[in-house]
Amino acid sequence: MHAIEISKLDKRYDNGLKALTNINLKVKKGEIFALLGPNGAGKSSLINIICGIAKKNNGKISILGFDNISQYKQARSLIGLVPQEIATDSFEKVIDTLKFSRGLFNKKKSSTYLDKILRDLSLFEKKNQQIRTLSGGMKRRVMIAKALSHEPKILFLDEPTAGVDVELRKNLWKNLNDLKKNGVTIFLTTHYIEEAEQLADRVGVIHEGKIIVVEKTSKLLEKLGKKTLKISIKKKTESLKLIIKKYSLKKSVSHYLLNYDLNDKNIVSNFFKDLNKNQIEFEDLEIKKSSLEEVFLNLIDK
Amino acid sequence: MNIRGIFAIYKFEMSRTFRTFSQSIISPVLTTSLYFVVFGSAIGSRIEDIDGTPYSSFIIPGLIMLTILSQSISNSSFGIFFPKFSGTIYEILSAPISPFEITIGYVCAAASKSVIVGIIILLTSSFFVNLNIIHPVWMFFLLILISVTFSLFGFIIGIWANDFQKIQLIPTFIITPLTFLGGSFYSIDMLPEIWQKISYFNPIVYLISAFRWSFYEHTDISIIVSLTTILGFLILCLIAIYYIFKLGYKIKV
Ligand SMILES: Nc1ncnc2c1ncn2[C@@H]1O[C@H](COP(=O)(O)OP(=O)(O)O)[C@@H](O)[C@H]1O
Ligand SMILES: [Mg+2]
Description:
The complex is a heterodimer of chains A (302) and B (253). Chain A is an alpha/beta fold. Chain A has helices at residues 43-51, 72-77, 94-104, 111-120, 136-148, 166-181, 193-199, 217-224, 238-246, 266-277, 292-301; strands at 4-12, 18-27, 32-36, 58-63, 66-67, 79-82, 154-158, 185-190, 202-207, 210-216, 226-233, 250-252, 255-261, 282-289. Chain A has two domains: 4-221, P-loop containing nucleotide triphosphate hydrolases (Rossmann fold); 226-290, Alpha-Beta Plaits (2-Layer Sandwich), CATH 3.30.70.1150. In chain A, the strands form three sheets. Chain A has a six-stranded mixed β-sheet with strand order 6-7-8-3-9-10, sandwiched between helices. A four-stranded antiparallel β-sheet of chain A has the order 2-1-4-5. Chain B has one domain. The A-B interface holds A 13-14, 48, 51-55, 72-77, 79, 81, 83, 85, 87-89, 91-92, 96, 99-108, 146 and B 2-5, 7-9, 11-12, 15-16, 19, 86-88, 90-98, 248, 252-253. The complex binds adenosine-5'-diphosphate and magnesium ion. Magnesium ion binds at residues 43-44, 84, 158-159 of chain A.
């Protein structure tokens, strides 16, 4: 059984805007799944529909086997949601808002568990403070704490690190990896490629309401990514010219660049063999992997 | 049934009330006291008894109604409107709690507050007049029934409203005038005949009449008719809320 199973999902807003078209997606239990797409691609719409905040026009969604409409109570009990926008009750105390969330999800009181969450998210010192006295980053963590307060099996995070500084982002990634170790399935949206690359087991790319590709993060890079070999060669000889032609090297300031596909395994060794054969010496070399960013641009281009 | 969820909403709403204690509890007490000083003591002493009840006592049920109707409506309409406005509604919408359970949480909290305010007004008024309630159990039952009914009505307004003005609209332009014209400060049979007839189309007349009956047994309208009217309105609100949630009206996009 899958953690999330979506089939033939369509969403059209009242103003006629088609936000999602024929979404089919399966998220495995225990994985971190990143939905990647530019602003307005439909990421939030998808999360909101899964979690019961927006209505769908068509299709079926099941959460660990429970239909999200006809069995919404069972389905939603398993879900924790951190929406994109920060929305908190300013005058509530941090601990009270967590107790509220836990109660809303029909879970027995547990101050030990709530304290643990607060510690994990470095909020324990702020436990008895009103939310309005916290910084933006802390408020976001309060929202994450609320989502975790009822021990969800699947956690949805809608752009959790948008506008969050580097250190907080790294901390959050650590938190998410810890949750994953505890068996929580994580579904996050982002438009930071780095985030998907660092965190996700699998990545789905969404563009204009359609899912373009779903792939293991490493596979996606392998399949569509390119590597560039940057090499510095001092002496320009006749034989080098031939090699430049053979491998269509590009010249960049004082180096030559060799672009090749990740799955083209032989090209590099052939290249070096040729260099050797022609006694061309190089001074320095560097290999650059293309980022998911470039992969992404590649995909959308098609 | 998500009992803990209902209770969480109830507790949240009540703590909001107590956080703004002075605003939500002291102000109705103050307003009512002023009414007593002006209508009860100053003017009331020059008005003759109505069906054997001194004017200052006669107005108590009407005064309580005046306050709890507006309190019930504003408490629950604001209670559900504010999360929509601030965005915190997301959590309630994504929780395993049914629309019916959500309604119970908000409406019970708003009604509790109204009942508390009603009792406080009653206690305040006992400083001004000699209170003698003939049917205390009925009085209490009606207080609760009316608070619940109008809290439910307010809840509907809160769901329907998409800005602060709309929340004020119905209480200001409909409920308050109808309450003043509904016999808070006079008996319907003191009016010219034509206005008596018109008054029977004002639903608030029935509430005040029933409530006053529980105090003094004096009534413009038979208690059965009044009770039926109140229950009818309650059922109407329940039907409305059922359809609102069924259609996801104005909450889900
Ligand atoms: N409530 C709404 N009503 C109408 N259109 C909406 C609403 N919410 C989002 N949209 C539109 O749907 C599209 C997808 O939006 P969204 O899901 O928020 O994208 P993302 O989260 O990927 O940035 C956008 O074109 C957006 O303008
Ligand atoms: Mg979004």
